[in-house]
Design a protein that fits this description.
Elements: E1 2-6, H1 10-20, E2 25-29, H2 32-44, E3 51-55, H3 63-76, E4 86-91, H4 96-104, E5 109-112, H5 117-126
Parallel strand pairs: 1-2, 1-3, 3-4, 4-5
Helix pairs in contact: 2-3
InterPro entries: 2C_system_His_kinase (IPR050956), CheY-like_superfamily (IPR011006), Sig_transdc_resp-reg_receiver (IPR001789)
Modified residues (4-aspartylphosphate): 55
Protein name: Stage 0 sporulation protein A homolog
Length: 130
């Protein structure tokens, strides 16, 4: 599995990278702009990501903007809906309006922080990623 992690917090990034690397190759970015660029390069190389984990609160471009960018790239390249990347939003923002906005923009799963490994693995199983 090919995974893209976008996380600006060093400790969370280190934890998530270690956790996710058990399941596949994990590329790491520190802001939403880098994530969209990495996603675009992977599409152009014909090696798209299977999973994108996006933090919402990041510098330069937040997770919502990055998610919009990713979904727009998929539309531009006519990626069928069943082949669209699975996106798990990871954030401490658990208010209903934030959750709703993430799903409206096309996220697949919303996971609150701190990350619960067991629940995160269950979410990945639900998406048939593991």
């Amino acid at each position: 599995m090919k995974i893209l992690l976008a996380e600006d917090d060093f400790a969370t990034r280190k934890f998530m990278a270690s956790f996710l690397s058990k399941y596949g190759e994990c590329d790491i970015t520190v802001d939403g702009m880098e994530a969209v660029d990495a996603f675009m390069m992977a599409l152009e190389d014909g090696e798209p990501y299977d999973l994108v984990c996006l933090d919402i609160m990041m510098p330069v471009m937040d997770g919502y903007q990055a998610l919009m960018g990713i979904r727009n790239l998929e539309k531009q390249r006519n990626v069928p809906e069943d082949k669209a990347v699975k996106v798990i939003m990871t954030t401490a923002l658990n208010e209903e309006k934030n959750v709703k906005m993430a799903f409206d923009l096309g996220c697949t799963i919303y996971s609150g922080k701190p990350i619960d490994q067991e629940r995160f693995e269950q979410a990945m199983k639900k998406l048939n990623l593991i």
